[in-house]
Design a protein that fits this description.
Shape: globular
Order of helices and strands: EEEEHEEEHEHHEEEEEEEEEEH
Largest sheet: 9 strands, mixed, barrel
CATH architecture of the largest domain: Beta Barrel
Helix content: 10-25%
Strand content: 35-45%
Distance between the termini: 28 Å
Number of strands: 18
Strand order of the largest sheet: 8-9-10-11-12-13-16-17-18
Number of helices: 5
CATH class of the largest domain: Mainly Beta
Radius of gyration: 22 Å
CATH superfamily of the largest domain: Calycin beta-barrel core domain
Length: about 350
């Protein structure tokens, strides 16, 4: 790629695209592709967002600055990216999904090619092979990647929220409060079970199973020692993952969770309350390559009827779960306007 080729400002071509594995996916046009050619001015390699900044030269000698949002640092790392993959002064060609708001010089990363021929994308060939090659598991322990279905779950919730939920959402939207994802507050259960972020299940003993998530500072603790749920849990000790007890029914792990902390976006953008009650049934598929998770959930404070839904996680031994981290400045990044 020559330097003269870098002077092309921006071309847009239609392209087929998958759904985004990201909470701000609605900001981008998944049916279009933009080509951004220019000079890197910065690369922020952080969680929960990574950002690439590129100045695109103009015929009049000026530049147009582009902000390009990418996957989490963990996702990029697994696909070969590192903190020094893009450095100020690098000449690059970047393929992106452009912002729905065409006035913004903002895109969602698909791939980047440097002038020296270095090519990085999301996902890369090794990751694709890992997703395509189904590997049977010996049990539920191991690393699992949810099949991306959380957006469709939103459609299940929408008809079931009551007027109180709609009213509270409207009040919250009219306030000056920042969205929960900008506060490093992750999606609630069960909607997060359909987001393609890595989980690892660990059987600690016959009485305790831990479910680790890369978005979680602490793992979910599933107690299998026969204890009941406590009658109450002090508000300052409640969590968005609640209190979970479990039991085995044949080959199915049944998880019963109560005492959820109130969350202003706990039901796909609507609030969820402390009376929410969730039952999950984790069952290996017949070929043992997936966990099928059947969920039923009640929340009489905000839902008019129980939610019944199913998620699937793919056994992904090719993935190494990385530690949780969340940078508040990075979390706020997608709210900035070019």
């Amino acid at each position: 790629m020559s330097r003269s080729a870098l002077k092309l400002t921006l071309t847009v071509a239609l392209a087929a695209a998958p759904a985004f594995a990201h909470h701000s996916f609605v900001a981008f046009d998944a049916d279009s592709e933009a080509i951004v050619r220019g000079t890197v001015t910065g690369f922020e390699f952080r969680n929960p967002h990574t950002y690439l900044f590129v100045d695109v030269p103009q015929p009049d000698g000026g530049v147009l600055p582009w902000r390009i949002e990418a996957e989490t640092m963990n996702d990029l790392y697994r696909n070969g990216w590192r903190e020094d993959s893009a450095q100020p002064g690098d000449l690059v060609t970047v393929r992106v999904y452009p912002a729905v708001d065409t006035a913004r010089r903002y895109g969602r990363l698909k791939s980047m090619e440097k002038i020296d021929g270095t090519y990085l994308e999301i996902p890369n060939e090794d990751d694709e092979r890992g997703r395509d090659n189904l590997v049977p598991a010996s049990g539920i322990d191991g690393v699992w990647l949810p099949i991306q279905t959380f957006a469709s779950y939103f459609g299940v919730i929408e008809p079931l929220v009551n007027e109180q939920a709609r009213s509270e959402r409207q009040r919250y939207g009219a306030s000056d409060a920042l969205p929960p994802n900008t506060r490093c507050v992750d999606m609630s259960i069960p909607q997060r079970l359909g987001r393609a972020h890595v989980y690892e299940i660990e059987t600690v003993s016959e009485n305790l199973i831990l479910i680790h998530g890369e978005d979680d500072a602490e793992p979910r603790r599933i107690y299998l020692d026969g204890r009941p749920h406590p009658k109450t849990i002090p508000e300052d000790q409640q969590s968005y993952t609640g209190h979970s007890i479990g039991r085995w029914e044949g080959g199915t792990l049944v998880i019963d969770t109560t005492h959820f902390k109130y969350q202003d976006n706990g039901h796909a953008g609507y609030p969820s309350g402390g009376r929410k009650h969730l039952v999950e049934r984790f069952t290996l598929s017949d070929d043992k390559t997936h966990i099928v998770i059947d969920v039923s959930m009640e929340d009489p404070e905000f839902l008019t009827a129980p939610v019944v839904h199913q998620f699937q996680w793919q056994h992904s031994p090719h993935i190494v779960r990385l530690p949780h981290s969340c940078d508040r400045e990075s979390a706020l990044g997608y709210l900035e306007v070019n």
